[in-house]
Amino acid sequence: MSILKLENISYHYDRSKVMVLDKLNMDFDEGKIYTIVGKSGAGKTTLLSVLSSLAAPTDGKIFLNDKDITKIDRYKFRSKYVGVIFQSFNLLTHLTALENVILSMDISGKKFDRPKKEIALELLRKVGLDEEEAKRRVLKLSGGQQQRVAIARALSYDPDIILADEPTGNLDGETQDEIIGIFRMLAEEGKCVIIVTHSPDVAKASDITYELKKPDKAS
Q: What is the residue range of 41's domain?
């Protein structure tokens, strides 16, 4: 059974009749890495916004474990089921790596069975940062380290689905491979990982690739 399913999803902006997404049907399973590829303007970032419930589709339905997500509180959906990793990291740079992860845990409203600091340090170690690096301010970390913090933050409330927007776009080849390795580890642990990417290497490392094409008809 798909953890996330799209049925005839379409999207256009309020002031435009031009379709950005047109009748998309996709299935996403746990334990797999998916990549979303396509040329600029094909709607990749828009699709990520729709998948994360930051934007509502114009038409069609999205199901989480066979339940229409419109029946789920949008805040609960984003703070419980989905973790988002942004291309620009979107970290609070005046805070430490550890503080960024703990803040995400606080915002989620989830109850934890252990101290948040302990869990946050464990997550940061999981993505390759030691305790000394965890206590550094984000501005003192490299791009690759900041991406690891962003991944740990997305994992902080243990979501089933990880959405990533160009997570290796600003990284060198070696660091990209390390980040891909982290995503593979997460999929092997049962997460559904969905990545928007321009990178052929990231797409090649995924289990399934969906290619978006720019709709050529207006609604």
A: 4-211
